[in-house]
């Protein structure tokens, strides 16, 4: 950003609208009275005086109608930015009925919280994988002067800068830790950290427009369509390997317990070959996915 004066909001306390409305009523009564007096003078043949009253009544009517342009209303959680002849006079945040110089322009700004549901963006993560990502940003106007004078369209500014911040953040981290082992922060696994980082970056970008970021979170995250199938298979393979490792670990523990109990209770005495055969059979039973077919030992030389 170039060095230039930054607008600063200042509070303005305008005149109350109800007293000025009473003055407006008096102006209209004066118009009626002048018209009546002018008509009376014309009826009596005094055209000069009658014309003077009529002209005065028309001028007062024009003034009273122009006077109406000074009234304005501020709703709750809204503000009015007042500009007189190209000069910023101040901002009215207090809700109510007010009056100001009729030449003053009165721009309405909402101070309510806004939701920006961003569109899905296709970007590359830290490892270059194409992903789809979008975010929801909750924001509101904090400085009405900056929002009015320092950017062209503050709502469009929020939209564009939100997309830019999201794209920049997505390139800083991997999608998950399958391809980046040991990564401390990933888009998929570190939702709180990612949201905090996105909110921090948006706050810095939108400060120029006087916008406060209340919350920013990802609401969509997925691999791009062209690699989604391959990455799904990779995730499934990883899940299968992890499940198999857990099954084998449990089976080995059960075999150790079985051999220990057989030896401790003297149920049967097994030599090393029989132990090896028993261990193999137990592991097949515990780790296999198909139903087991029993085999009976019919003698010393067979099963």
From TrEMBL:
InterPro entries (alphabetical): Band_7 (IPR001107), Band_7/SPFH_dom_sf (IPR036013)
The keyword Phosphoprotein is assigned to this record: no
Matches recorded under Gene3D superfamilies: Band 7 domain
Transmembrane segments: 20-39, 51-74
Key words of the record: Membrane, Transmembrane, Transmembrane helix
Membrane topology: Single-pass membrane protein
Gene Ontology CC annotation, any one: membrane
SMART domains cross-referenced by the UniProt entry: PHB
Superkingdom classification of source: Bacteria
SUPFAM superfamilies: Band 7/SPFH domain
Compartment(s): Membrane
Domain Band: start-end pairs: 69-235
Coiled-coil intervals, chain numbering: none
Predominant location: membrane
PANTHER family: BAND 7 DOMAIN-CONTAINING PROTEIN, MEMBRANE PROTEIN-RELATED
Name the UniProt record assigns to this protein: SPFH domain / Band 7 family protein
Naturally occurring in which organism (per UniProt): Saltatorellus ferox
